Amino acid sequence: MFNQGDEILKARANEKEATGALKGFLKNLTLTVEALGLVNPLQKVYSLTKPLDNLSLFFTVFTIHTLGSLRYDQYLCSMMRKNAQTPVIDGPHFIVGLITVFKQFHPSYYKRYIYFLAHFVKNVIFMTTTARELPKQLPSDA
């Protein structure tokens, strides 16, 4: 009669072969769908990485720097370059790229990024409301 151990080994070998074929099929399907452009880059996770401590802080400083070279255009309802001498970057492309980068990491990175930006805006508002005008002349006591 048949040995039950041999049947189990054959079944496991067949299962491994089917799993390998399925992985190959899924890989080819993914490459084909990407080539056709049917992929939403905002939802795709490209790689998993180790935790990066200062990623949110880096992108906060980068955003603040980039916003200095952009202006809001009322007719286009979008952020545009201030003038031709500023770096070639557009607001919508910058935002989509930033969101795509943050989708690759844990949501806590995006939350910390928003927290840092909110903290920056809060401090700017505080400083502009509490700032006193500097005297144009020295006081008469001096």
Largest sheet: 2 strands, antiparallel
Total strands: 2
Please count the helical segments. Answer: 4
If you average the pLDDT, what whole number results? 84
Helix content: 55-70%
The SSE string, one letter per element, is HHEEHH
Q: What's the arrangement of strands in the largest beta sheet?
A: 1-2
Taking pLDDT < 50 over at least 5 consecutive residues as the criterion, the unreliable ranges are: none
Number of domains: 2
Gross geometry? elongated
Strand content: 5-15%
Radius of gyration (CA) equals 28 Å
Distance between the termini: 113 Å
Label the structural class.
mainly alpha
Description:
With 142 residues, the protein is mostly helical. It folds into two domains: 1-39; 55-130, no CATH class. 58% of the residues lie in helices and 6% in strands. The chain has helices at 4-36, 55-67, 91-103, 107-130, and strands at residues 70-73, 78-81.
Topology:
Layout: H1 4-36, H2 55-67, E1 70-73, E2 78-81, H3 91-103, H4 107-130
Antiparallel strand pairs: 1-2
Helix pairs in contact: 2-4
Using brief descriptors, characterize the structure shown.
single chain, elongated, two-stranded antiparallel sheet, mainly alpha, 2 domains
